[in-house]
Amino acid sequence: MSFRIPLARPCTGPEEIEAAAAVIRSGRLVRGPRVEAFEKAVAEWAGVDHAVAFSSGTTALLAALRCLGVGPGDEVVVPALTFPAPAAAVVWSGAAPVFADVDPRNLDVDPADAARRTTKRTRVVIAVDQFGMPAPAVELEKIARRRGALLLVDAAC
Description:
single chain; 14% strand
């Protein structure tokens, strides 16, 4: 007998299934009116003029790094245990990923280890909300700021 233990199981009900089906029935799978409505709702919620939806968390991370001017010669601290997207986005931006250990209690990046791994070349610290567990963003932002870097939070998971 074979069985599978899911890493994560989405919580979907009839409303989510119908919403996905409505998009498919519309014939607009890319940049349709539902995406525009989503972007507007996110912008209003965040209190900003604009929000942009991406096709994946990976493309969002790469765009954010590029917008921040991260490139060759720069370092970005990323969790050593997470989906490959954060490190891949760093490599694709031309920078070097620097892997920080994670806290075994919640699998989020360990702030103490992240602090040890920052250098004068650190431009960004990426925190990942691993399996829905919020990363210690307040601590990580303080660590990043001490180096003149920024915190980027990846909540795609």
